[in-house]
Amino acid sequence: MGVYKPPFTITNEILSYVSSISEKIGRISATSNLESKPHLRRNNRIKSIHSSLKIEANSLSLGQVRDVINGKTVLGEQKEIQEVKNAYAAYEKISEINPYNIRDLKKFHGIMTKYVVEESGDFRRGEEGVFNGDQCIFMAPPSRFVPQLMDELFDWMKEAQNSVHPLILSSVFHYEFVFIHPFSDGNGRMARLWHTAILSKWKPIFEFIPIESQIEKFQEEYYDAIAKCHLDGASTIFIEFMLSQIDKILDDISIQISEDNGQLSEYIKKLLDVMEYDIPYTSNSLMEKLGLKSKEGFRRNYLRPAVDMNLIRMTIPDKPNSRNQRYVKI
């Protein structure tokens, strides 16, 4: 009997994204050694962990996640704090993962769900559905089929790794994994961790690219793509969605690196220096911190360029001139 082949079609859009992403990764690797920038790597890892947990309804802010990882005391639900510690332990070992080994998958599920899930490191024994909030997107296959479905998926991956591009293979795995839903809890977190692990085997730089934060920004579209693929019986739409998000986040990474290489204006650097993460500021409070009087000069030299470069975001992006507008450092 041949190896199971997950159904998907390689469209022109997918090929175009693969080409664009490969080009951007080449450019980033050539202009900067991200591995030698520990603060950027750490910031991106914290963003990955915060976003992946936030998708699963963990309420801790980026600042609180940063504090937990830095060993500071954080007031919060014990389970949520433990989830951060677990995710950090898993992401710190990402380079040790063999993404084509099912034993590694179970081992890392054990790390990711330590103390918070009963069936930690084991496939589920009950029935599960995939939910977006309270809405059930679909019911997962019965638990008795899980071991066989996972074996088939990993057998396909091992065979396909030499013929299917890692960008496509990792997206197919992500969708199929979410569809099988092999664990009682932690499936979304594991799918995103494994996606990153597959890509970082192809290009190590992916270990420090927070794809999870991009998914979190487009969470509705993420679940929508999964639901559409379920109806289609193929993962094509999900592959296109994931590649479009990876393509977008590489633009952010390029800006981040150019900022780090000193290519940002002194104005933007000063603005970022006076802002703390997770705190919404009014434009007046920022002007006060910077000691500025001219509103137009502040907007032209500081605010607009920082928003355009995706270094700060507006709390009400649909109404840029709203009197309730606030600005948050990303």
From TrEMBL:
Site entry: Important for autoinhibition of adenylyltransferase activity: E56
Origin: domain of life: Bacteria
Molecular function as annotated in GO: ATP binding
Catalytic residues (positions): H181
Keyword list, A-Z: ATP-binding, Nucleotide-binding
Binding residues annotated for ATP, in chain numbering: D185, G186, N187, G188, R189, M190, A191, R192, Y222, Y223
Matches recorded under InterPro entries: Fic-like_C, Fido, Fido-like_dom_sf, Fido_containing
Fido domain ranges (all copies): 100-244
Protein name according to UniProt: Fic family protein
Organism of provenance: Sellimonas catena
Classification of source organism: Bacteria, Bacillati, Bacillota, Clostridia, Lachnospirales
